[in-house]
Automatic annotation (TrEMBL):
This is Pre-60S ribosomal particles component. Pfam families: Rrp15p. Residues 26-44 have a biased composition (Basic and acidic residues). The lineage of its organism: Eukaryota, Fungi, Dikarya, Ascomycota, Pezizomycotina. Transmembrane segments: none annotated. InterPro entries: Rrp15. Residues 21-44 are annotated as: Disordered. Belongs to the RRP15 family.
């Protein structure tokens, strides 16, 4: 008898395959566990799962690192010992201070622009040769003027106080 058509040979082969011990990685796909393609596919699947877990873990660590120094309760309203009226008053004072600072900054910018225009007129009157040299001189004057205005707290260099408009 030939083994090719022998049902007993097939039965013994099948019982040997089914009774063989499989590793945990090959138990998910037991029928094709002995083929190379199946083992490669299962390894790729396992690698993909591990990579996904690693990315998730890295994302969580990055978020935790960003939140480490962050204060969640800025207003302090979540604690019971702080009154909301005191918090509102402090916020009002801070807003007023910020508004004054912005007004000073805008006034300093406007004064620097005016100073730059005056420097441009002066450069034309004195007859500075060349447009490039004239522009360099004007830019230098406006930079110096602006930095002086910022350092002076919004006051003009001549000593007059800039108008504050709200």
């Amino acid at each position: 008898k030939r083994k090719r058509n022998d049902p007993d040979a097939f039965a013994t082969s099948m019982s040997k395959i089914l009774s063989s011990k499989l590793t945990t990685s090959k138990r998910a796909d037991p029928v094709l566990s002995r083929s190379k393609e199946a083992s490669e596919v299962s390894k790729e699947m396992i690698d993909a799962r591990l990579e996904t877990k690693a990315r998730h873990k890295l994302r969580e660590e990055k978020k935790a690192a960003l939140d480490r120094g962050r204060v969640k309760d800025v207003m302090g309203t979540e604690s019971m010992d702080v009154s909301s009226a005191a918090v509102q008053e402090q916020e009002r004072r801070l807003r007023k201070t910020a508004q004054r600072g912005v007004v000073k900054l805008f006034n300093a910018v406007r004064a620097a622009q005016v100073k730059g225009e005056e420097a441009a007129r002066e450069a034309r009157k004195t007859g500075t040769v060349g447009i490039v040299k004239r522009e360099e001189r004007v830019n230098e004057m406006s930079k110096k003027g602006f930095l002086d205005l910022i350092a002076g707290g919004g006051k003009k260099a001549s000593g007059t106080v800039a108008q504050e408009t709200i």
